[in-house]
Amino acid sequence: MSAGAPQGGGTLLNATDFFGKTDVGGIEKFKTVAFRALLEQKLEEELQQTKQENERLSDANTKVTRELQDLQTAFDANIDDRERVLAFKSKRLEELASKLREYEAINASLLQTMNGGVDSESGNNSSVATSSAAEPVAKETETRARMMTLINSGKPLFHALDTCKEQEYKQLYEESQQQCAQLTQTALENEFALRETRMAQIYKQDSEAQIKELKSQLAAMAQEKDELEHHLERKLIMENDRLRREKEAELQAFHESMRTQMRTQLDVTTQRTVEENERVQLELRYQSSQLEKMIKQIDDLRAENKHTKQEMHVFEEMNAGLSKKLKFYEQLFAKMQRKDEQRSRQSSNQQPRTPKTPRDPPASRRTPRKPALPVLSAVNPSPETPLLYGIGSPHGSCFARDDDTFQSIRYPELDVDTVDTNTSYQLNSITDVLEKHLQSREFTKKQVVAVLRYHQDQYHRRESPNVVRDSARLGRTPVLKKKLMLSKNCYSPSNYGRKIREPPVYDTGCFDQAKGVISAI
Length: 521
Description:
Blueprint: H1 15-19, H2 26-115, H3 120-133, H4 137-152, H5 161-264, H6 268-350, H7 406-410, H8 425-463, H9 493-499, H10 509-520
Helix pairs in contact: 2-3, 2-5, 6-10
């Protein structure tokens, strides 16, 4: 909470930098925030000091406890050592006392042996020795054995009485002095050990009392520390709750003021963004509608392209059919020419021979006389078998019949093998057929030109931006509906929608050749 911390420029911030110059309660808010920051900092310092003191006391308690344990261990070890020393010294004293009694028994036995039990001193000594020698019986037996060994070896068993007593007393005195010195030293040592043991026991009691006092002080300090810690925690929690409630109240008031400001005035950037979004949405809707129109146009163009391909296929079929017709006409003309030549030769052979005049041409150069061609209106075919399509019929080249039924249906009277050679009906029929064919071909050429113009008009209408086609007419091409007029005689509903196609432009060389053949006939 460094409310007044300096920034990068090194200048201190004031209340107006945080809350603005227009805020009336900015200084009060700044004071409140600063006071709370100082209070929190103080609480944190107190808590830190309490934690450090607690750690120091815990370390001191651990150290005192460790020293007490070491002292207790040392006391226990010293007491055991002193007890072992005292037990050893007492055992040693018992051994020395037993040796002293043995020596006294030996001395008594020697005196009894020397005096034979007559003197009163020896009697008294023997009585004492008897009372004391009853105990070490085994050692007396050993002494007697030694004495018998000296006697058997020829050595004197005893010296002179005075000398022996003197030596014996000296030896006993020295041994007694030594034992007394040893016992005195042992007593001194035992007294010193006892004094040390008593001092250690007193020190142990003092240490135990001090340890108990330190433990009580430590428990009191721990309890005081826990109470202080709980008090500080409760105080900190209460202060945090109070600050949180105040902050929440301030935040709620700030939110309310911001909501009021947002309701009263809307930012210019937000308004511009809303307008831009509306404009973009309008543009997107327009582009979507244009895209849908383009997709519909593409679908219509594909359907029209498919329809055009189908018409081209039918035109190719019509071209093949017309080529077959033309080939049939050529064969028919050639056969008719051969029949005419045969007939002219037969007529020339049947005529009577007349004398030749110089003016007559030779027979080889004579050409047969052509019969007079009847008027076209005189040809009256039977109503059951109509001719080709009427003159001027727009469907003369559009509804093609099969090649197998071409002669039997359209030209039943033109069978060359059954034609009467004496009649002029054959040439008139052929002429009528050729004229009608030429008229139908001319009409086909005009029809092709009309179809091309119609498609050009349709293309220009699609390319023109000002022309909007009706959506109800998309996918329908009204080709030849106004220009093609079918006669009642040649209209067939089953063939109309299937046979009508746009015929291609044919080469007219074959028809020119047919005209030459007819003119030659």
